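Hey,
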Amino acid sequence: MAEKILIVDDDVDTLRLVGLMLQRQGYQIVAATNGQQGISKAVEEQPDLVLLDVMMPDMDGYEVTRRLRQNLATANLPILMFTAKTQLDDKVAGFEVGADDYLTKPTHPTELQAHVKALLARAGSREKRKETETQQANLIGILSARGGLGVSTLAINLAAGLFSRTQAEVGLAELVPGQGTLGLDLGLTNQKALVKFLSGAPSDITREQVRKALVPHISGVKLLLASDRPSDIHLVSQVVQYEAILDQLASLMRYAVLDLGSGLLPFAQKLLPRCNEVVIVLEGVPNTILHTRELIKELAKLGIKKEAVTVALNNRIRSDTQLPASVVQDKLEHPIAVTLTPAPELLTQATRMQTAAILCQPDGVTAKQILKLVDHLIQNENKEA
C-alpha cells in the first residue's frame, strides 16, 4: 500500500504543486488548507508523514505541531516543516515544538523526495507502527437511574466537548438497541451496525469491522449508533458481544463515551467496572434523587469506587418544582460535578441542525457547563496517570 502523506498549507498552488510532485513518486496524498483541518485529518487519516507549512492565518505550523504532539493518536507522526522562512531561530522554534525536519521554500523535487524518504525510513511504515500500538481508550460510561433524563443528549455533547478540548480520537457508542435516538437527531437513520454485531458471533467483531462501522460526524466524534426498532431491545442480554465491541473500541479511540441508557441492564453491569469514569445523570426531583442514590449503591457493589462516579444534575425544564443543586447534593449524599441549566430552544436548534448543542452556541452557557464537565473528567484522568 502506498504511504500516505498529509500536506497542510493555506496556499492552494503549493498544495497542488507539492502534491503532484509526491504523487509522481507513488505516494498517496491528503490535503488540508488550514491548521485546524490539518489536525482533524491527521487524527482521521493517520498518515505516514505530515508536510506542514509554518505561515498559516488561523493557526501556524508551530501550534499545529504542538497539538499533534500532545495527542496520543498523532504524537509519533513524522512532521516535515515546509516554509519560506530561512532564519535559524525559526528552524529552532520548529524543532523545539516537535518537528522532525525542516525544508525552505522553494525546494527542488529531488531534495523534497530525499527528505521525505529519509523521514519515512526512520519512522517505519504506518502498518508497522500500528502493529506496536498499545493505545487503550479512556472509557466513560453515562447512564441514569430511569429513562428520559437526557443521557443521550449529554453523551453527544460530552463527546463533542472532549474532541474540542483534546483533538484526540473520540468515539461515542449508543449501546441500547431499539432505543436509539441519536441517529434520528443527527440525521443518521437506519443504523444497523450495533444490531449486526450483537446478533453475530463475538469472533466476528474485529477491530477492522468496528472501525468500518463507526460513522464520522461533523463534531469530530465517531459514532456507533443504536437502532430505533423496539424489538431489538432483546439484544441487551448479548453480554459477550458487548465485551468484544468494547475491546475493539478501546483499541481504536483515545476516549470512548458509552451511552448505557437507564438502569442496570445486563450488558451495563459487565461494562461499567471497565470504565475509567461513570457519569450519572439526574434531575432535581425527589423520587429521581432516591433512585439515583440507590443506583450509586449498586455501582459500589459492582466494584466501582465512589470517586470514579461523577454526577451531572440536568435541569431539563424551567420549573420551580425542581430542587436546587445544594439540596439535591445533600439528599443524594454524593457531590454534583456540574449543573446543566434548562436550554430547550438550544436543544431544538441542535436537532434541527443535526449536531451537538455546544456546537450551535460554542460561547453559550450550556457549552461552558459541558466543558466544565469535560475538564473535570480530564483532570480525573490526569490524577490516575
